[in-house]
What does this fold into?
Amino acid sequence: MFEKKQHIEMMRKLAEGELDQLVEEIKQSKKALLKVETVEELLAIKAHIKAVIEKRSKLSNSLEKIEQQMNLSKEFAERQIASLEHMKFTLVEESEARKIRNQEIINRAMQVDKLIVTMDDQIKGSVAKMEEIESVLATISSAVKEINATAQSMKNQVNTFVETAQNVASNITGISSIAEQTNLLALNASIEAARAGEAGKGFAVVAEEIRKLSDGTKELLDNMIQLLTALESASLKTNEEVNATALGIEKVDNKVEEVGDNVKESKQSTLSLQEQIEKINNYVKDIEEEIQLNEQGAEKVHDNLMGYSLEYLAQLKEEVTGALTEIVASSQYYEETIKQLDMINQYKVLGNSKQ
It folds into this structure.
Protein backbone atom coordinates (compact mmCIF):
# COMPACT_ATOMS: atom_id res chain seq x y z
CA MET A 1 0.00 0.00 0.00
CA PHE A 2 0.93 3.62 -0.24
CA GLU A 3 2.72 5.05 2.71
CA LYS A 4 2.18 8.55 4.06
CA LYS A 5 5.49 9.54 2.54
CA GLN A 6 4.38 8.38 -0.90
CA HIS A 7 1.19 10.37 -0.62
CA ILE A 8 3.10 13.53 0.26
CA GLU A 9 5.46 12.93 -2.67
CA MET A 10 2.50 12.55 -5.02
CA MET A 11 0.96 15.82 -3.78
CA ARG A 12 4.31 17.59 -4.25
CA LYS A 13 4.59 16.40 -7.84
CA LEU A 14 1.02 17.44 -8.47
CA ALA A 15 1.64 20.89 -6.99
CA GLU A 16 4.90 21.36 -8.89
CA GLY A 17 3.32 20.48 -12.23
CA GLU A 18 5.14 17.16 -12.68
CA LEU A 19 1.97 15.63 -14.02
CA ASP A 20 3.63 13.62 -16.78
CA GLN A 21 5.80 11.79 -14.30
CA LEU A 22 2.88 11.40 -11.89
CA VAL A 23 0.64 9.95 -14.61
CA GLU A 24 3.38 7.52 -15.64
CA GLU A 25 3.84 6.37 -12.04
CA ILE A 26 0.09 5.93 -11.67
CA LYS A 27 -0.03 3.88 -14.87
CA GLN A 28 2.81 1.66 -13.66
CA SER A 29 1.24 1.18 -10.23
CA LYS A 30 -2.33 0.71 -11.51
CA LYS A 31 -2.55 -2.83 -10.19
CA ALA A 32 -1.17 -1.76 -6.85
CA LEU A 33 -3.80 0.96 -6.66
CA LEU A 34 -6.50 -1.65 -7.30
CA LYS A 35 -5.22 -3.61 -4.34
CA VAL A 36 -4.64 -0.68 -2.02
CA GLU A 37 -6.23 -0.73 1.34
CA THR A 38 -6.01 3.02 2.05
CA VAL A 39 -9.06 3.99 0.03
CA GLU A 40 -9.74 7.09 2.12
CA GLU A 41 -6.42 8.61 1.14
CA LEU A 42 -7.01 7.95 -2.55
CA LEU A 43 -10.48 9.38 -2.28
CA ALA A 44 -9.04 12.52 -0.71
CA ILE A 45 -6.55 12.81 -3.57
CA LYS A 46 -9.30 12.26 -6.10
CA ALA A 47 -11.52 14.85 -4.37
CA HIS A 48 -8.65 17.32 -4.54
CA ILE A 49 -8.16 16.54 -8.22
CA LYS A 50 -11.89 16.98 -8.84
CA ALA A 51 -11.77 20.37 -7.15
CA VAL A 52 -8.94 21.35 -9.47
CA ILE A 53 -10.91 20.08 -12.45
CA GLU A 54 -13.98 22.03 -11.36
CA LYS A 55 -11.90 25.18 -11.44
CA ARG A 56 -10.96 24.41 -15.05
CA SER A 57 -13.89 26.23 -16.60
CA LYS A 58 -13.39 29.25 -14.35
CA LEU A 59 -9.70 29.29 -15.18
CA SER A 60 -10.46 28.92 -18.89
CA ASN A 61 -13.00 31.74 -18.74
CA SER A 62 -10.54 33.93 -16.85
CA LEU A 63 -7.84 33.15 -19.38
CA GLU A 64 -10.24 33.90 -22.22
CA LYS A 65 -11.21 37.21 -20.62
CA ILE A 66 -7.57 38.10 -20.03
CA GLU A 67 -6.77 37.14 -23.60
CA GLN A 68 -9.69 39.24 -24.85
CA GLN A 69 -8.59 42.16 -22.69
CA MET A 70 -5.03 41.85 -23.94
CA ASN A 71 -6.30 41.70 -27.50
CA LEU A 72 -8.33 44.82 -26.82
CA SER A 73 -5.25 46.48 -25.33
CA LYS A 74 -3.25 45.45 -28.37
CA GLU A 75 -5.95 46.78 -30.70
CA PHE A 76 -6.14 49.98 -28.63
CA ALA A 77 -2.37 50.41 -28.87
CA GLU A 78 -2.51 49.78 -32.63
CA ARG A 79 -5.34 52.30 -32.98
CA GLN A 80 -3.42 54.83 -30.92
CA ILE A 81 -0.32 54.27 -33.03
CA ALA A 82 -2.38 54.70 -36.20
CA SER A 83 -4.03 57.78 -34.70
CA LEU A 84 -0.64 59.20 -33.75
CA GLU A 85 0.68 58.44 -37.20
CA HIS A 86 -2.30 60.27 -38.68
CA MET A 87 -1.85 63.04 -36.15
CA LYS A 88 1.84 63.18 -37.03
CA PHE A 89 0.93 63.47 -40.70
CA THR A 90 -1.63 66.18 -39.89
CA LEU A 91 0.84 68.02 -37.67
CA VAL A 92 3.45 67.80 -40.40
CA GLU A 93 0.96 69.32 -42.85
CA GLU A 94 0.05 72.02 -40.33
CA SER A 95 3.73 72.60 -39.62
CA GLU A 96 4.42 72.99 -43.33
CA ALA A 97 1.45 75.35 -43.66
CA ARG A 98 2.68 77.28 -40.62
CA LYS A 99 6.14 77.45 -42.15
CA ILE A 100 4.62 78.84 -45.34
CA ARG A 101 2.62 81.42 -43.38
CA ASN A 102 5.64 82.35 -41.29
CA GLN A 103 7.73 82.63 -44.44
CA GLU A 104 5.08 84.92 -45.93
CA ILE A 105 5.19 87.00 -42.75
CA ILE A 106 8.99 87.10 -42.95
CA ASN A 107 8.82 88.09 -46.63
CA ARG A 108 6.35 90.85 -45.83
CA ALA A 109 8.54 91.91 -42.93
CA MET A 110 11.48 92.09 -45.32
CA GLN A 111 9.38 94.20 -47.69
CA VAL A 112 8.44 96.44 -44.77
CA ASP A 113 12.12 96.61 -43.87
CA LYS A 114 12.99 97.70 -47.41
CA LEU A 115 10.14 100.22 -47.35
CA ILE A 116 11.40 101.52 -44.01
CA VAL A 117 14.90 101.90 -45.45
CA THR A 118 13.45 103.81 -48.43
CA MET A 119 11.34 105.99 -46.11
CA ASP A 120 14.39 106.58 -43.92
CA ASP A 121 16.37 107.76 -46.95
CA GLN A 122 13.48 110.00 -48.00
CA ILE A 123 13.18 111.38 -44.49
CA LYS A 124 16.90 112.10 -44.38
CA GLY A 125 16.54 113.89 -47.72
CA SER A 126 13.54 115.83 -46.36
CA VAL A 127 15.50 116.79 -43.25
CA ALA A 128 18.39 117.98 -45.41
CA LYS A 129 16.00 120.04 -47.57
CA MET A 130 14.37 121.46 -44.44
CA GLU A 131 17.78 122.46 -43.15
CA GLU A 132 18.44 124.17 -46.49
CA ILE A 133 15.05 125.90 -46.23
CA GLU A 134 15.93 127.00 -42.70
CA SER A 135 19.18 128.46 -44.00
CA VAL A 136 17.37 130.23 -46.87
CA LEU A 137 14.70 131.53 -44.50
CA ALA A 138 17.39 132.79 -42.16
CA THR A 139 19.01 134.62 -45.10
CA ILE A 140 15.63 136.01 -46.18
CA SER A 141 14.84 137.06 -42.62
CA SER A 142 18.20 138.82 -42.37
CA ALA A 143 17.63 140.54 -45.73
CA VAL A 144 14.10 141.53 -44.74
CA LYS A 145 15.38 143.02 -41.51
CA GLU A 146 18.01 144.97 -43.46
CA ILE A 147 15.33 146.17 -45.91
CA ASN A 148 13.12 147.11 -43.00
CA ALA A 149 15.98 149.06 -41.45
CA THR A 150 16.61 150.78 -44.81
CA ALA A 151 12.91 151.58 -45.15
CA GLN A 152 12.88 153.07 -41.68
CA SER A 153 15.96 155.14 -42.62
CA MET A 154 14.23 156.30 -45.84
CA LYS A 155 11.16 157.16 -43.83
CA ASN A 156 13.24 159.25 -41.47
CA GLN A 157 15.05 160.93 -44.39
CA VAL A 158 11.77 161.69 -46.15
CA ASN A 159 10.38 163.15 -42.94
CA THR A 160 13.52 165.28 -42.62
CA PHE A 161 13.19 166.34 -46.26
CA VAL A 162 9.53 167.27 -45.73
CA GLU A 163 10.44 169.30 -42.68
CA THR A 164 13.26 171.01 -44.63
CA ALA A 165 10.94 171.73 -47.55
CA GLN A 166 8.38 173.15 -45.17
CA ASN A 167 11.09 175.37 -43.64
CA VAL A 168 12.24 176.48 -47.11
CA ALA A 169 8.66 177.21 -48.07
CA SER A 170 8.29 179.26 -44.94
CA ASN A 171 11.46 181.21 -45.76
CA ILE A 172 10.30 181.70 -49.35
CA THR A 173 7.04 183.02 -48.03
CA GLY A 174 9.03 185.53 -46.00
CA ILE A 175 11.15 186.47 -49.02
CA SER A 176 7.99 186.82 -51.11
CA SER A 177 6.60 189.17 -48.50
CA ILE A 178 9.81 191.20 -48.69
CA ALA A 179 9.57 191.25 -52.50
CA GLU A 180 6.01 192.56 -52.28
CA GLN A 181 7.08 195.28 -49.90
CA THR A 182 10.00 196.10 -52.22
CA ASN A 183 7.58 196.30 -55.13
CA LEU A 184 5.37 198.60 -53.09
CA LEU A 185 8.34 200.80 -52.20
CA ALA A 186 9.40 200.91 -55.87
CA LEU A 187 5.89 201.95 -56.80
CA ASN A 188 5.96 204.75 -54.21
CA ALA A 189 9.40 205.81 -55.44
CA SER A 190 8.08 206.03 -59.01
CA ILE A 191 5.22 208.21 -57.84
CA GLU A 192 7.57 210.50 -55.94
CA ALA A 193 9.94 210.67 -58.95
CA ALA A 194 7.05 211.68 -61.19
CA ARG A 195 6.20 214.47 -58.81
CA ALA A 196 9.79 215.65 -58.86
CA GLY A 197 9.58 216.20 -62.59
CA GLU A 198 12.73 216.35 -64.65
CA ALA A 199 14.92 215.96 -61.59
CA GLY A 200 13.30 212.71 -60.56
CA LYS A 201 13.54 210.91 -63.95
CA GLY A 202 16.70 209.07 -63.06
CA PHE A 203 15.29 207.99 -59.75
CA ALA A 204 12.09 206.87 -61.55
CA VAL A 205 14.14 204.60 -63.84
CA VAL A 206 15.83 203.02 -60.82
CA ALA A 207 12.51 202.60 -59.08
CA GLU A 208 11.08 200.92 -62.18
CA GLU A 209 13.98 198.50 -62.36
CA ILE A 210 13.59 197.71 -58.69
CA ARG A 211 9.89 197.06 -59.26
CA LYS A 212 10.66 194.75 -62.20
CA LEU A 213 13.28 192.97 -60.12
CA SER A 214 10.78 192.62 -57.31
CA ASP A 215 8.17 191.22 -59.69
CA GLY A 216 10.70 188.74 -61.11
CA THR A 217 11.76 187.72 -57.65
CA LYS A 218 8.15 187.25 -56.61
CA GLU A 219 7.51 185.16 -59.72
CA LEU A 220 10.54 182.97 -58.98
CA LEU A 221 9.48 182.63 -55.40
CA ASP A 222 5.99 181.59 -56.49
CA ASN A 223 7.52 178.99 -58.78
CA MET A 224 9.74 177.75 -55.95
CA ILE A 225 6.73 177.57 -53.65
CA GLN A 226 4.86 175.51 -56.25
CA LEU A 227 7.91 173.29 -56.70
CA LEU A 228 8.36 172.85 -52.95
CA THR A 229 4.65 172.15 -52.61
CA ALA A 230 4.94 169.46 -55.28
CA LEU A 231 8.07 168.08 -53.59
CA GLU A 232 6.31 168.08 -50.24
CA SER A 233 3.31 166.29 -51.74
CA ALA A 234 5.59 163.76 -53.41
CA SER A 235 7.57 163.37 -50.20
CA LEU A 236 4.39 162.78 -48.21
CA LYS A 237 3.27 160.20 -50.78
CA THR A 238 6.71 158.62 -50.68
CA ASN A 239 6.49 158.61 -46.90
CA GLU A 240 3.15 156.83 -47.09
CA GLU A 241 4.57 154.30 -49.54
CA VAL A 242 7.61 153.83 -47.35
CA ASN A 243 5.30 153.25 -44.38
CA ALA A 244 3.26 150.76 -46.40
CA THR A 245 6.48 149.09 -47.55
CA ALA A 246 7.73 148.94 -43.98
CA LEU A 247 4.45 147.37 -42.86
CA GLY A 248 4.61 144.88 -45.74
CA ILE A 249 8.21 144.06 -44.92
CA GLU A 250 7.25 143.58 -41.27
CA LYS A 251 4.46 141.21 -42.32
CA VAL A 252 6.88 139.37 -44.59
CA ASP A 253 9.32 139.14 -41.71
CA ASN A 254 6.59 137.74 -39.47
CA LYS A 255 5.58 135.24 -42.16
CA VAL A 256 9.20 134.25 -42.64
CA GLU A 257 9.53 133.66 -38.90
CA GLU A 258 6.25 131.71 -38.90
CA VAL A 259 7.40 129.60 -41.84
CA GLY A 260 10.73 129.09 -40.09
CA ASP A 261 8.94 127.91 -36.94
CA ASN A 262 6.75 125.57 -39.02
CA VAL A 263 9.83 124.22 -40.77
CA LYS A 264 11.49 123.60 -37.40
CA GLU A 265 8.37 121.82 -36.13
CA SER A 266 8.20 119.78 -39.33
CA LYS A 267 11.86 118.93 -38.93
CA GLN A 268 11.32 117.81 -35.34
CA SER A 269 8.25 115.79 -36.38
CA THR A 270 10.21 114.24 -39.23
CA LEU A 271 13.09 113.35 -36.90
CA SER A 272 10.59 111.89 -34.43
CA LEU A 273 9.01 109.92 -37.29
CA GLN A 274 12.47 108.70 -38.24
CA GLU A 275 13.00 107.45 -34.68
CA GLN A 276 9.59 105.72 -34.70
CA ILE A 277 10.39 104.10 -38.05
CA GLU A 278 13.70 102.90 -36.63
CA LYS A 279 11.83 101.40 -33.67
CA ILE A 280 9.36 99.73 -36.05
CA ASN A 281 12.30 98.36 -38.01
CA ASN A 282 13.76 96.92 -34.81
CA TYR A 283 10.34 95.46 -33.89
CA VAL A 284 10.09 93.83 -37.33
CA LYS A 285 13.55 92.30 -36.91
CA ASP A 286 12.60 91.04 -33.43
CA ILE A 287 9.41 89.50 -34.87
CA GLU A 288 11.44 87.75 -37.57
CA GLU A 289 13.83 86.35 -34.97
CA GLU A 290 10.94 85.28 -32.68
CA ILE A 291 9.18 83.54 -35.59
CA GLN A 292 12.35 81.64 -36.46
CA LEU A 293 12.98 80.69 -32.80
CA ASN A 294 9.34 79.63 -32.30
CA GLU A 295 9.46 77.59 -35.50
CA GLN A 296 12.62 75.81 -34.37
CA GLY A 297 11.17 75.24 -30.88
CA ALA A 298 7.86 73.96 -32.29
CA GLU A 299 9.66 71.53 -34.58
CA LYS A 300 11.81 70.29 -31.70
CA VAL A 301 8.82 69.86 -29.36
CA HIS A 302 6.81 68.19 -32.13
CA ASP A 303 9.61 65.76 -32.98
CA ASN A 304 10.28 64.95 -29.30
CA LEU A 305 6.59 64.51 -28.46
CA MET A 306 5.75 62.37 -31.47
CA GLY A 307 8.94 60.35 -31.11
CA TYR A 308 8.28 59.71 -27.42
CA SER A 309 4.59 58.88 -28.00
CA LEU A 310 5.29 56.50 -30.88
CA GLU A 311 8.19 54.90 -29.02
CA TYR A 312 6.03 54.50 -25.89
CA LEU A 313 3.11 53.00 -27.81
CA ALA A 314 5.40 50.73 -29.81
CA GLN A 315 6.94 49.52 -26.55
CA LEU A 316 3.45 49.11 -25.07
CA LYS A 317 2.36 47.14 -28.12
CA GLU A 318 5.44 44.95 -27.85
CA GLU A 319 4.85 44.37 -24.15
CA VAL A 320 1.16 43.60 -24.72
CA THR A 321 2.04 41.24 -27.57
CA GLY A 322 4.62 39.50 -25.36
CA ALA A 323 2.18 39.25 -22.49
CA LEU A 324 -0.49 37.95 -24.83
CA THR A 325 1.92 35.33 -26.17
CA GLU A 326 2.75 34.26 -22.62
CA ILE A 327 -0.95 34.10 -21.75
CA VAL A 328 -1.67 31.96 -24.81
CA ALA A 329 1.22 29.69 -23.89
CA SER A 330 0.01 29.52 -20.29
CA SER A 331 -3.51 28.81 -21.51
CA GLN A 332 -2.23 25.95 -23.64
CA TYR A 333 -0.22 24.67 -20.69
CA TYR A 334 -3.27 24.80 -18.40
CA GLU A 335 -5.39 23.08 -21.04
CA GLU A 336 -2.82 20.30 -21.22
CA THR A 337 -2.76 20.11 -17.44
CA ILE A 338 -6.54 19.84 -17.32
CA LYS A 339 -6.47 17.04 -19.89
CA GLN A 340 -3.93 15.15 -17.77
CA LEU A 341 -6.09 15.67 -14.70
CA ASP A 342 -9.02 14.26 -16.64
CA MET A 343 -6.91 11.17 -17.36
CA ILE A 344 -6.18 10.74 -13.65
CA ASN A 345 -9.86 11.19 -12.86
CA GLN A 346 -10.70 8.19 -15.10
CA TYR A 347 -9.03 5.69 -12.71
CA LYS A 348 -11.47 4.00 -10.32
CA VAL A 349 -10.66 2.72 -6.87
CA LEU A 350 -11.94 -0.72 -5.74
CA GLY A 351 -14.41 -0.58 -2.94
CA ASN A 352 -15.85 2.80 -3.99
CA SER A 353 -19.29 2.08 -5.34
CA LYS A 354 -19.94 5.78 -6.09
CA GLN A 355 -17.22 5.89 -8.77
